[in-house]
Amino acid sequence: MSGSRAAIRYAKAVLSLATDQKSSEAVNSDMKTITNTIAQSEDLNQMLQSPVVRSSDKKAVLTSVFKDANVVTTNLIDTLISNKRLALLNDVAASYMQLYDQMRGTQVATVTTAIPLTADLKTKVLTKVKELTGKEAEVENIIDESILGGFILRVGDIQYNASIANKLDKLKREFTLN
To answer: Which UniProt keywords apply (predicted)?
Structure first.
């Protein structure tokens, strides 16, 4: 728990600094890159979490992987290394993106579908999300064929499951109870 608190504190500090330097959007882009890269590379994630790998080696890897990063992002990595908190990098990046979205008054709406969303459906989802929450949103489409059809919409803490698999599961539970 203290790790996530620390990650939020680092993220708030970075957001404040990035906002002062008018580079918060560029840093947000860096944070997306960091979370995506760590999610895709199990080796990178293990290296960041490992107490055995020297800090200098971690820094060398991170500077080569994220060589186009903003100065604020690079300074964050240096600070995390000097404070021996580099294992928090992914959490800090995720927290930063949430804080940045809150600051801008936007949110991410995750829509899970069996097939990719069309532009028309994406527009309808954005309209519905704005109607429900009063905030602008970005749509992230996740394709999961196991839901068979329909969709699962997740915005913040709200989830609406209109998938065929969910409806079949409800029917199955209904029949087994009777």
So the answer is: ATP synthesis, Cell membrane, CF(1), Hydrogen ion transport, Ion transport, Membrane, Transport
